[in-house]
């Protein structure tokens, strides 16, 4: 699955979020209570109870923040798999670039050969592109359950945090802007160490924050708060566990060592020629 396919899937997920927002804001769903019988309602109410417990009678907003940190910490191994996959993909880029130069043709035969060779490289380097999508897919039910909880559970619908009514949209747009900013920072930091970027990568880096902003504008404030905290967590996680600046420094150090080795070989060769 290439970057373009990943962009399409991410856009589809973003569209799903927007549809979900529209459905919830139209008020077509009934309240969820402790007596609700179906499995999904019980799961939504269970999440709501966790948030209420984590609020420590201070604020539902505090509960959402701690709930977000809890979810992200529990999912840390999954996100780490994504980071490892991203790093392997970065390491594979020079070889992929060489293959694209080797098979520049647009005909079916050239494209098929290029795909085959790329798959060989990915297999050799242990790259599974689907690994980068697991965090998005796993978070979707969590976001949907949180969305439903804030829209359908009474004690969350009436919750407040600072200026925010967590069950309603943030009309000040502060949270949607913060959600978009932290989403951009998260994506930018994740892509910082890429040895090369294409149009699809750039489109993802700028397009996803726009989708998140639109989503957060119409979502309950509590969902926008979740997304803001989640991506702030992602920024810190990337910086400390997969620091792109460290990766760049390591890559440059390897390149420098190779250059020094080549220089020593050339000098030794010249010296050997002079002594003849």
Automatic annotation (TrEMBL):
The chain crosses the membrane at residues 51-79, 203-227. One of its GO terms (cellular component) is plasma membrane. CDD domains: 5TM_YidC_Alb3 (cd20070). GO terms for biological process: protein insertion into membrane; protein transport. Keywords: Cell membrane, Chaperone, Lipoprotein, Membrane, Palmitate, Protein transport, Signal, Transmembrane, Transmembrane helix, Transport. It is a multi-pass membrane protein. Residues 61-243 form the Membrane insertase YidC/Oxa/ALB C-terminal domain. Residues 1-24 form the signal peptide. Pfam families: 60KD_IMP. It is found in: Cell membrane. The keyword Lipoprotein applies. GO terms for molecular function: membrane insertase activity. Belongs to the OXA1/ALB3/YidC family. Type 2 subfamily. Required for the insertion and/or proper folding and/or complex formation of integral membrane proteins into the membrane. Involved in integration of membrane proteins that insert both dependently and independently of the Sec translocase complex, as well as at least some lipoproteins. This is Membrane protein insertase YidC. It comes from Streptococcus pneumoniae. The lineage of its organism: Bacteria, Bacillati, Bacillota, Bacilli, Lactobacillales.
């Amino acid at each position: 699955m290439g970057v373009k396919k990943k962009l399409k899937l991410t856009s589809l997920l973003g569209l799903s979020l927007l549809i979900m927002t529209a459905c919830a804001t139209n008020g077509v769903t009934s309240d969820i209570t402790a007596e609700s019988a179906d499995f999904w309602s019980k799961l939504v109410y269970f999440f709501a109870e966790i948030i209420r417990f984590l609020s420590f009678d201070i604020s539902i907003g505090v509960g959402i923040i701690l709930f977000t940190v809890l979810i992200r910490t529990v999912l840390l191994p999954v996100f780490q798999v994504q980071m490892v996959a991203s790093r392997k993909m970065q390491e594979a880029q020079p070889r992929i670039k060489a293959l694209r130069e080797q098979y520049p043709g647009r005909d079916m035969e050239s494209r098929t050969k290029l795909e085959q060779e790329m798959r060989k490289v990915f297999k050799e380097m242990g790259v599974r592109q689907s690994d980068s999508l697991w965090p998005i897919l796993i978070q979707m039910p969590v976001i949907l359950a949180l969305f439903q909880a804030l829209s359908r559970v009474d004690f969350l619908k009436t919750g407040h945090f600072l200026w925010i009514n967590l069950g309603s949209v943030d009309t000040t747009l502060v949270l949607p802007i913060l959600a978009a900013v932290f989403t951009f920072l998260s994506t930018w930091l994740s892509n910082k160490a890429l040895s090369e970027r294409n149009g699809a990568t750039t489109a993802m880096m700028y397009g996803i924050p726009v989708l998140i902003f639109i989503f957060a504008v119409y979502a309950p404030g509590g969902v926008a708060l979740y997304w803001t905290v989640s991506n702030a967590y992602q920024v810190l996680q990337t910086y400390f566990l997969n620091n792109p600046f460290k990766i760049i420094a390591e890559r440059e150090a390897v390149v420098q060592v190779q250059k020094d080795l080549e220089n020593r070989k050339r000098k030794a060769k010249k010296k050997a020629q002079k002594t003849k």
